[in-house]
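Thread: Newbie trying to understand structure tokens

Hi all, I'm a second-year student working on a class project, and my supervisor (Dr. K.) asked me to get a predicted structure for one chain before our next meeting. I've only ever worked with sequences, so writing a 3D structure as a token string is new to me. If someone could post the tokens and maybe explain what I'm looking at, I'd be very grateful. Here's the chain:
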Amino acid sequence: MYDQTRAQQPADNRSGSAGRRTTGPEPLLPSDERAELTLRLQHALNTFADSPREALEEAEGAFDEAIARLMNTLAERRRDLHEGWRDPDPEKSDALRFALREYREITQRLLRL
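---
Reply by user tm_fold:
Sure, no problem. This is what the structure looks like when written as tokens:
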């Protein structure tokens, strides 16, 4: 049976790479991808005075790459969640609750952007 109170609770925190509890939701992109995109954007900012057009093209490229990576990550996450709850087994109510919380958490994060 659907438990509305439990479904409205925040999603559980995930453990970090060393087994530590993280303080917030897991980032949508891995740290190496975020670092790469941050460096590209920083490079664009640092070169703007000398070559504004090239700096804007670099910033636009970093923006486009961030969007593409985010879209791929979200599509993969959606596929994984969808596969987890499509099983018709009625005994999998925990899997259904988990999927609902994940959909809610991801959607809320996107709405806060």
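A couple of things are worth pointing out once you decode it. Confidence is low (pLDDT under 50) at residues 11-19. The first helix runs from residue 4 to 7. Feel free to ask follow-ups in this thread.
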